[in-house]
Structure formats: structure tokens, C-alpha cells
Specification:
By secondary structure, the protein is mostly helical. The protein is built from twelve helices and no strands. Helix 4 crosses helix 6, helix 4 runs antiparallel to helix 11 and helix 11 packs across helix 12. It is globular.
């Protein structure tokens, strides 16, 4: 069940069955997002990896601790400012109001889930490097979970297109955007593929990102995201149980490699980039209404 639509080997979400299918469904239900992130689907190809990681993290998701820390973390992220796109520019780029609504939903979804995954998966890495039992969370450290702001339900996202399904010029644009501040190259960020339904929008944001990529400001923001995420993750890690001790060493190494790859590269990178694009992309203008007045 490895998907050619994904840039790394992964389980196709629609074909997941048995324990993996159940965990995917649980991830969607617990996180409130209708798409299972690539990192989870990549873990699913190594027997025992996905159940072990999800078993560690699920209680922290359910309690609200990860969500609370992710909310704090998102408020702490300061990406470099970008020029604001206008509704006129979006319309000229063939992005109608429905397109603007969907693009906004995509940005909001990735902005929320990137932070959650970065803090949650970073916590697993931190816990794997520690020894001994979990540390009981104090009332002070646990209180942010209780105070986490309830966030609106995210709308369903459009299907994620395979790279092979994109026209050659759109695929080239996605690859060019993915190269912005890219230090590894093994993973193509899913967000750009989701936004590929609107090539005009991709062209606009490529123009916006080019200067802050060239002068290094975006890389500074990404490095800052990585540093700050470590502190937030350690707080969550203190309450996690250890990784299943019965796992083979090869499985443990794979988990470590996968989580390190995703947290240090695509997730941290896209946390900063998505934050910048969210600030630059306006909310859709209110729908115009025309009323016929009768005397």
C-alpha cells in the first residue's frame, strides 16, 4: 500500500485497513483534521512504528496539552512580513471567491497541524532520548491544556494531487517553491501540492517568497522555529510514557530517523513559511448581494 502519489514511501490513506486504518481514523477524530499527515503515513510502512508513536502521543492529544502548547507556539512564531496580496491580484490570477475560501482553509489547516505535529513529534523524540518513567505534570505546567482556546472546526480540504498528475509547468512551480530554504530535499511539502489546484496563486507566492529566501530572512525564521519548538516539545515530553520497550532496534531507529527528518525539515520549514503566507493572503471578501427594489 505504498503510494506513488507521495514523495516518500507511505501508506495510501484510502487503502489503509486493519490496525493502521483504525489508527488513521483515530488520528483524524482526535486531531479534528480530515487528512492524515504524511509523517504518520510514512511511519505506517514500518511494522509497529505507527502504533508505538501514536500510543505515546494520544493521551497528550486527548488531554489538550499538545494543542495548548501548539497554540502558544503559533503565537510565538514571527515569520518575516510579506507584501499583502489583494483581491484584485487573486482574481487576475484566476482565483475566484470559492478558490480564495479554499486556499484560506488550506493555509489555516496547515498552520494549525504543522504546529501540533512539530510539538507532538518533537516531544516523542525528546522522550526517546530520555530515560526513566514519565514525570508527573505539575498543576502549573498542566494548566495551559485546560486553558486552550477552542478552535473552529476545519473544513474538508480538496484532494491532494499526485505530483505525476500535475501539468509539467505546475509541477516545476511546486518543486521550485519546495526548494525555498530546503536543506534536505527528500520530502515535497504537501501544502504546495494542495495549492496546486490554483497555479496562479502558486505563481504569486513564489514571487513573494523569492526576496526573503534570497536575503536569508526566511531561513532565520525557520531556524528560530526549530529552536523554539525544542522548548515547547520538552514540556510535553515530560508527561509521555516511554516508547514500547519490545520494539526491535531497527524499528526504533526508523522512528527516530523519520521524526527527525520531518521535524527538522518539512514541518519546521513550512511552519514558518505558512505563517508568512497566511499573513499575506487576505480573507475572502464578503459575497456581493444584489437586491431588486420594487416600488
Amino acid at each position: 500500500m505504498s503510494s506513488s502519489a507521495d514523495p516518500v514511501p507511505a501508506i495510501i490513506e484510502s487503502e489503509a485497513s486493519g490496525e493502521i486504518g483504525d489508527i488513521f481514523q483515530d488520528i483524524r477524530a482526535v486531531t479534528g483534521v480530515d487528512v492524515v499527515n504524511l509523517v504518520w503515513r510514512r511511519l505506517a510502512i514500518t511494522e509497529g512504528a505507527l502504533p508505538a508513536v501514536w500510543t505515546m502521543l494520544r493521551p497528550a492529544y486527548v488531554s489538550g496539552l499538545v494543542a495548548a502548547r501548539a497554540q502558544e507556539f503559533r503565537r510565538d512564531v514571527c515569520p518575516p512580513p510579506l507584501p499583502k496580496l489583494t483581491h484584485a491580484a487573486l482574481r487576475a490570477a484566476s482565483v475566484d471567491r470559492l478558490g480564495q475560501l479554499t486556499i484560506r482553509a488550506i493555509l489555516d489547516s496547515y498552520q494549525r497541524t504543522n504546529a501540533i505535529n512539530l510539538i507532538g513529534l518533537g516531544a516523542v523524540l525528546a522522550r526517546m532520548s530520555a530515560h526513566g518513567p514519565a514525570i508527573a505534570m505539575t498543576s502549573a505546567s498542566a494548566s495551559p491544556a485546560a486553558l486552550a482556546e477552542e478552535e473552529p472546526t476545519l473544513p474538508p480540504l480538496p484532494p491532494l494531487p499526485a505530483m505525476s498528475a500535475l501539468d509539467s509547468h505546475v509541477r516545476e512551480l511546486v518543486e521550485s517553491l519546495n526548494s525555498v530554504c530546503e536543506q534536505d530535499g527528500r520530502v515535497i511539502a504537501s501544502m504546495y501540492r494542495h495549492l496546486a489546484w490554483w497555479p496562479g496563486y502558486l505563481a504569486l507566492i513564489a514571487t513573494l517568497l523569492a526576496p526573503i529566501d534570497k536575503d536569508g530572512r526566511m531561513q532565520v525564521a525557520i531556524d528560530d522555529v526549530r529552536r523554539r519548538a525544542v522548548d515547547f516539545s520538552r514540556d510535553v515530553a515530560a508527561g509521555l510514557q516511554p516508547l514500547d520497550a519490545s520494539l526491535d532496534d531497527d524499528v526504533v531507529r526508523d522512528i527516530d530517523e523519520v521524526l527527525t527528518l520531518f521535524t527538522q525539515h518539512p514541518i519546521s520549514k513550512m511552519t514558518a513559511i505558512c505563517g508568512a503566507l497566511s499573513s499575506a493572503t487576505p480573507a475572502p471578501a464578503p459575497a456581493s448581494t444584489s437586491a431588486v427594489q420594487r416600488c
